[in-house]
UniProtKB/TrEMBL annotation:
Organism for this UniProt entry: Amycolatopsis balhimycina DSM 5908
Pfam families: Gas_vesicle
One Gene Ontology cellular component: vesicle membrane
Primary location recorded for the protein, binned into one broad class: other
Record localization: Gas vesicle
Keyword Transmembrane assigned: no
Name of the protein in question: Gas vesicle protein
Molecular function terms, GO-annotated: structural molecule activity
InterPro entries linked: Gas-vesicle_GvpA-like
Keywords: Gas vesicle
Amino acid sequence: MFEVGRGNGGNAVEAVADLLDRVVHRGAVVTGDVIISLAGIDLVRLDLRLLLLGIEGPPG
């Protein structure tokens, strides 16, 4: 897939930018749960979902 620091003449910033470009082009979904509890009782629960997509502008 993608390797950071492979002798292609780029630096780490370019590698991260290239990786983000690939992720946005293909799309990604990130999910997670955060639960805050006290003494075994759940006080706050957050269900997180992030959809990352690239949107192209109008042609021309």
